[in-house]
Design brief:
homodimer; mainly alpha; MgtE N-terminal fold; Tetracycline Repressor, domain 2; 3 domains; 3-stranded mixed sheet; elongated
Chain lengths: ~475, ~475
């Protein structure tokens, strides 16, 4: 029976219900049972349970439960907590407990923590570190946010090319405990600490004890520099399916490695950032929706809404200049929203596909002519289909005269084609002039196509209807 | 000097220019130089170069260059080629070459290939396989697309719990060559092949030769079943930062493992799918933008454009029923696009954030009241800011009477608030009734808010202006 329980697969368990049970136990102050229930989980899950405890019972209770955990487990849990809770816990525990956490915390997790802490707490943490450690910490704190330097850890395995496999495995066994990964080992030049090769633990295991690292290592090492942007780093991991990637400084010296588990976060962050930008939300950063206050939400949403609202002054101006025409044929107003909406939707489809294609490195600036030609043809075909259906609808359902139907459908045809072309071109042009293409998505595109749609519609109407 | 060249970091190299050079060499028929230039790259890059060769010089040239590559390298390259090119290559090479590729290809890559091949080529490939291999292949071919079963490979390391570390390492050394990964080893019960534990290669390396696997393994194994959806699989990898995840059948027997390199593709696929849905593009699947023909593009875009266009019949109806009011105060028309646009943009912001929050597991259905309350407050504040700015603009720039400004701004205030609330609720309601929340994004939201915006505007106008 117990084995069956262990084999419960991750996709069938009801984690939410289990968390609720634990929260109930806490409310009933059955702390002994809480502790034994908690330690059944791994650190990631415990961190999530503590976040739920925070939502339901407040931070004091989080600190209480956190201090109940076995010491070594508590450090792992700490590493997975969100930064605000880390700061509160540091604030709420004793110096001795802090020292233990700092001692055991992985270097990159400590850097993340230090970046968030107020100055007085930073001092509290750095109290026990050596001068050499503080120098290293300072170097790491100075790498720009979202750079390879800010993602990397100095805890990697380095080998010399003259080592045998047996010596290497012995070294790995000794140095491995504190390393972020032992599966990729880096061979460095003894003199200049420059990176000259990489050897996988698999290669070492498959080789004979007397084989030399030199003969096993790959010398075509993939590496990035400390200042490489994290989006590029994650693209390299995806492209080559890497487990780890070394980071070198300007002189080619190995200064750290980035491991694949940190890349998952980057991929999610970058996609979230794209989604935000594409929706016209600006400056939300990595903050989670539920954690952000109402005022911060307002600040992230107002700028683009305001800019786009202003752009409608032009659209309004177009309408004003055609006011007489509209007065004399008020039924033209009826089709305005449909034309603007269809134009906006057509443009959004194209711009979204292009933005995504560029983000995943499928579409490149050199493809611009190919994309435009494709979108023009798509636009013509989509425009014809929609116009025909619409023509029938205006004649037979709305009962308008054929000339009105012709005006509306002729305009729609041109609007769809232009919206598709513009929607595809805007992100590419943005990229060419080094503006983030993700900004040229739905909201911006539909505001622009609204303008265009009305202009085309009214010009068409004045030509066809002669007013 | 040569060392310096090797240390060129990935982010500074100009791959595109290098590829162009190779294509020129091919055009000049300098095949010897092409070959020596190609083998300097790794398999991923060579596959990309061959894709460029295909775009510029056609498939025949791809097959020619492919056959020039050293045999072992060519198998790796083959695995990274897109499926259409794989099929063409199989078609264009000899049975002996096919046999070599099939023999060396990783099992999961072979399954992917077989899924794409026409029946006569499948036979050509399976000719040399044993009855047992064919049985296994058939089982794998039958797992549904996008399931854990379709992602996994049967090439993993299994250990027995009674093995010592030394025995385990010896077994890994023997079985490791063909394994997808040796860094996670799975302990299975001798009788039923059920999964009873997992032990990392790191743990084995750090332990003493006489230690027993039983004492080193974790018995709380994370696993999924063969039918688990790939989106859930990728969420588990991200959540726990895994390198590999075992897959079990209904009886808890280990049938395969999924490795992290295959998950990157899944993550990109799932995000792309979300982007497509949110833009109202349907049924494009995993096809890349540039590879899809114009007609297929049209088919993926028409359905939603048509549905949304039809929804504007209602919007048109609203306008028709207020035609008299509009005729008597035509300047009301001027502000229609601004109100619709701002409503649509406000709603899109909220719906995008909620859809993304639900996709990354940050927002849950149980947060619905919290989200609504947040959006109402955000909507009121954003609405007030925009309305005030707009009021001043209408009075001082447009020179309209205060009553018109009041109508427009009062309506805007309510529109923004309702659009934000509706934009946030629609994806959550969709999820509750098991519709994909990503469908409730930009296009759908703005079409719905357009309707709502006009209704509110006109009602407000008839009340305030008394017409």
């Amino acid at each position: 029976m117990s084995e069956e329980k262990e084999l419960e697969t991750l996709d069938t368990r009801d984690f939410d219900a289990e968390v609720e049970e634990i929260i109930e136990m806490i409310e009933e102050k059955k702390y002994g049972r809480v502790r034994s229930a908690m330690i059944e989980y791994n650190a990631v899950d415990i961190a999530e349970i503590l976040e739920e405890v925070n939502d339901h019972l407040g931070l004091d209770m989080v600190i209480l439960i956190f201090r109940m955990l076995p010491k070594d487990l508590s450090v792992d849990v700490f590493a997975y907590l969100p930064e605000e809770e880390q700061v509160e816990i540091i604030n709420g525990i004793t110096q001795k407990e802090i020292d233990h956490i700092i001692e055991e915390l992985a270097f990159d997790d400590m850097i993340d923590l230090l970046e968030e802490l107020p100055a007085n707490l930073v001092d509290k943490i750095l109290m026990k570190t050596t001068r050499e450690e503080r120098r290293l910490i300072n170097t790491f704190l100075n790498y720009p946010e979202n750079s390879a330097g800010s993602l990397m850890t100095p805890d990697y395995i380095d080998l010399k090319k003259t080592m045998t496999v047996a010596e290497s495995l012995k070294h790995i066994k000794e140095a491995g405990v504190d390393s972020e990964t032992i599966y990729s080992c880096y061979v460095i030049d003894v003199v200049g600490r420059s990176l000259i090769g990489v050897v996988s633990l698999k290669a070492l295991i498959m080789a004979e004890p007397d084989d030399l690292v030199e003969d096993l290592m790959h010398t075509e090492v993939m590496s990035v520099s400390v200042l490489t942007d994290q989006e590029e780093v994650s693209n390299i991991f995806k492209r080559y399916g890497l487990l780890a990637l070394p980071v070198v400084d300007r002189e080619g010296r190995l200064v750290g490695i980035i491991t694949v588990d940190d890349i998952f976060e980057v991929i999610d962050e970058e996609a979230t950032e794209d989604f935000q930008k594409m929706a016209g939300v600006t400056g939300a950063g990595d903050d989670e929706y539920l954690d952000m206050g109402v005022l911060k939400h307002v600040r992230t949403r107002l700028p683009w809404l305001f800019i786009l609202m202003c752009s409608y002054m032009i659209t309004g101006g177009i309408i004003t200049s055609f006011e007489n025409m509209l007065s004399s044929c008020i039924s033209l107003v009826t089709y305005m929203p449909m034309l603007m909406g269809t134009g906006g939707n057509s443009g959004s489809q194209s711009s979204t596909l292009i933005i995504r294609g560029m983000a995943t490195d499928e579409i490149d600036l050199k493809d611009i002519a190919r994309v435009l030609w494709k979108e023009i043809r798509i636009g013509v075909l989509v425009g014809i289909c929609l116009s025909i259906l619409n023509f029938l609808r205006i004649i037979y359902i709305d009962g308008e005269p054929p000339m009105v139907a012709l005006t509306v459908c002729g305009a729609m045809m041109i609007i769809v084609m232009l919206a598709k072309s513009a929607g595809a071109m805007l992100p590419m042009i943005a990229k060419a002039v080094h503006i983030d293409p993700a900004l040229m998505a739905g909201p911006v595109v539909s505001s622009l196509t609204d303008m265009m749609s009305l202009g085309i519609y009214f010009l068409f109407a004045s030509m066809v209807l002669g007013i």
